[in-house]
Amino acid sequence: MPDEERGAALRRRLLDAALRLVEEAGGLAVTADTLALDAVVREAGVARTSVYREWSGREAFYVDLLRELAGPGWQGPSPYDEDAVLLARRVVAGRLRDLGTAEGRSAVLEELVRRAALVDYQGLVRSVQWRSWVAVVAAVQHLPRAADRVRVERVLRASEAALVEHMAAMWAGLGVVLGRRLRPHVRGWATVATAAASVVEGFGVRRLLSPDSSDRVVVVDGPDGPQEWHLVALTMLSVVEGLTEPVPDYDPDVALADYLVHLAEREAVR
């Protein structure tokens, strides 16, 4: 194996070992001071001197680890829990008859958000990847070299852009089938995606500090009687309704056909 390929394989082995240790630690212990290089070397099964053949020192290795943690390879395609996405689709599929009236579509939207937003939030707070992302955002501000900060921030921004694009497509599809369009002052479904993610992630950060206050449930009168709403879901509904409005002259058959095409196109690019 050429030296260049051998060096790349060694770097990958060490970074993968570090990622496993971060995952075992729960994702939040990502600082240069807490990074135990000896533990990384043991996990990777290589000699300690090999680290210094590929990196100039501990700090350089740490910066590359932050870039790995910030990137889509570690973070995944979306902060949305896949169970939440599938649940949202099941809610729509199970209430197709309700799409024929404005009141029915509003009820489907409420039920979808009430259930899926909670599942999404619960998946987020369990996610080691999300907790590591929080740690990276905090850690990058304390990197001593401006060039290193720029390198990590560039990866963070790229990951964020990919996440927003993924989420915007999801909300656009739901808008089609539920007869919702953007209000005139809203510039694109990316705005809805960003606002919705901010709700879930904001509650997630607050839960790190105060689980009791973040996991409150309120009872709201629903079409079939009182319903329990987690605060994250109730806030999400306010955001979605505030940024979108009903589509006039909605045709449920056309909307459903367009929605199925949208889903097929999204699956094709996964």
TrEMBL record:
Residue span(s) of domain HTH tetR-type: 8-73
UniProtKB keywords: DNA-binding
PROSITE patterns linked to this entry: HTH_TETR_2
Statement: the UniProt record of this protein carries the keyword DNA-binding: yes
Residue ranges: DNA binding: 36-55
Keyword DNA-binding: yes
Alphabetical list of SUPFAM superfamilies matching this protein: Homeodomain-like (SSF46689)
GO molecular function, one term: DNA binding
Protein name according to UniProt: DNA-binding transcriptional regulator, AcrR family
